[in-house]
Structures are given as C-alpha cells and as structure tokens.
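Team,

Forwarding the record for the chain on the shared tracking sheet. I've put the sequence and predicted structure together so nobody has to dig through attachments.
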Amino acid sequence: MNKQLERLWSLKTVRYALLAILTVMALISLLQGIRNALEFSQDFQWDATKTFTMRINPYDESLNPSGILDRYGFEEYYLQMEANQFPSLLMLLIPYTFLPPLAARYAWIISNLIFTVGIIVLLRQTFLKKADKYVFVAFMLLMIAGTPYRNQLGVGQHTLFAFFFFLLAVRLDEMEDSKCAYVFSVLSLFVCYFKYTLTVPLCIYFIYKRKYMKIIISAFFHVVLTLVAALWLDDSFINMIIKPLKVSSALSAEGGIDFGALLKGSVFAYLLAFFVMLFLLVMSFKLSKEMELQVISILILWSLIITYHRTYDFFVITVVLAFYLARQRDFIFKLWYAIVIAGVFFGLRIFSESAGSKIAVGIIYYCFTISMTYIVLKEGKKKNTEVQGEE
C-alpha cells in the first residue's frame, strides 16, 4: 500500500492536481480568516495593553471591572477585556497602542500574515528542510486551509506571533559562530514566551540542545520587566504573577482536548501537566543529538494538550512531518498522522466541535501522541546502546 501511494505521488499530474486543490482551499480559508479578523480579533489584547500604558491595572479591571474604562469604548472593538498575559508579555504589544483600536486591529492582521510567511520560510530552513519540495508545499497549504489556522487568524490570537519567534530562535541558534546571532536568538526566545502555554514546552528543545544560558537569560528579562511593571502599576511583584493566572484559570476547562478540558479544570490537570513536563525534561537529557526531529515532534504534540489550548493552536502539528523525515518507514503511523490532521483540521469543524467529535478526535490524538513518544524513547534507547557499544 505504501509503495502504491509513493508511485501515485511520483506522477506529476497527481502532485499538481493535489496542490491545485490545496491552493484553492488555502486561499478560501485565508480570505475567510482575514474577513473574520477584520470583524473580531477579540483575543488581540490591545485593550489590556492600552490600559496598562494608562497606568490602570488591566488585571483588576478584568477580574473586577470598576467601570473606569467605559468612557474609552474599548469594548466596541475587543468585547470584554481578559488580561491573561503576564505584564512583561503585554509590554511587547505596546507599539500597537500608538494606533487607535481599529487601526491597531488592521496592523495586527498584517503582522499575523507576515508571521505566517516567516513561519513557512523558517520551517523550510529548520525542521522541514529535508522535506521533498512538493510535500513541503502541500503541508504548508494544508496548514493554511485547516480550521485551526483560519480561526487563529480570525480571533487575533498570538500563536503565530510566538511560534514565529520560537522558530527564529532555533534558526539563529544554528548560526553558532556569530555573536550577533546569539544575542538575537536570546531575544527571540524572550519574545516567543508570549504564548507560553505552547512555547515553554517547546523550549525544552533548547535544553535538549544544551543551550541552558539562552533559556536562563531570556527568562531573566521577563523577571526584570515584571518588576518594572509592578512599579509602574503600583502593585506587588507577586501580584503581577498571580493576577494574570487568576484571569487565565477561569478558562482552564474551556480548551479543546487538553488535560484541563478533559478533567474539567480540576487540580489534577495541573498535576498531570507538571509530571508530563518533568517527563519531557528528563527525556531531553536521554535522547541522542541525532534525534532533534523526533524531539521537536514529540514536544509539539504534548505542548498542545498539557495546558489550556483551544483548537486554533493546533495548526502547528504540521511540524510533526519532521518525525517522518527522520523515519521513512512505518506506513501505519503515517496513515495515523493523516487521520489526526484530518480530524483536527477539518473533522471538528464539520461537526461544529461537538462533544462527541472532541472525544473521538481526542482519543485518536492521545493514542497517537503516546505511541509516537514510545517509539522515540525506544529508538533513543537503541541509539544510546549503539553508542555505548562503539565506546
């Protein structure tokens, strides 16, 4: 079956026909995403950042609105304010606050389109550089055609922003002989934490690469800015951490198929997330240097379910293609991966993300993730044994 599909894919007519279909689907999805973004973009958090620049505590106004912001009309553009980002992250959006709310929304849409192009370019230069050019183009078109990307763009979310800077940090990290690249790699890591629910697990990749100082320095910048924010808002440093978490915790049970949604926001979801993170951290020390494609694939899969994520973040699972660039066999798992993508990108939308569809896709996704993790651990153990034997 695998060989038959490979022969079919080798036909130019088949490849071009499939790419043509995906191009049309991607264009329709992209235009609809832009249209939705022009109307909504409610997750942009321009309002929270603007409130911060006015020295009004956005976390207090999110938790217990005082009415002081009513006269500014923020809700006309961004509905109810939910300042669930740490202050050091909100500060990254300050340049957009120099624009009026509607213009800022347009600027954010353009920014996300630029980040999309950047993600595609950087994936080609990093984790997917070994992919066949037709396969790579097909997967990028599939990413844009899928519901997660369209919704990501439409609600003005920050995953495109954060994921772009994570990939930029990876690309710059590969330029080890340049001090300038080192500095900008650290700065890119600093920025990529904006969507920390995704990128903090992904940054285990830098621990796997033994780039500890980059993680420490980039995190330290946020500590400093959090202290600055506390002084600016006349609040305590601890509150600058606790209050955003209070705002975000209200959403912990409203994700797609993550632990929080699965366990209805129970404290056990946080405990489970902690132990999985610990497991991934230990795993990063155990796997050999030649397994970076497998490592990033596993980190991507787990990052989307250990903490709160709506399904609009799942466009990043296209990166799991990297796993199959490292392994040219296992047709059954390639088919499984195709089913996961089909379910997440299109199946959930067809069934309006009903409880039943989430359960079905969730079961497939969890089984796939656990199976991939087992395969990587088994392969890592084999490689370590081989290395020890050579020594």
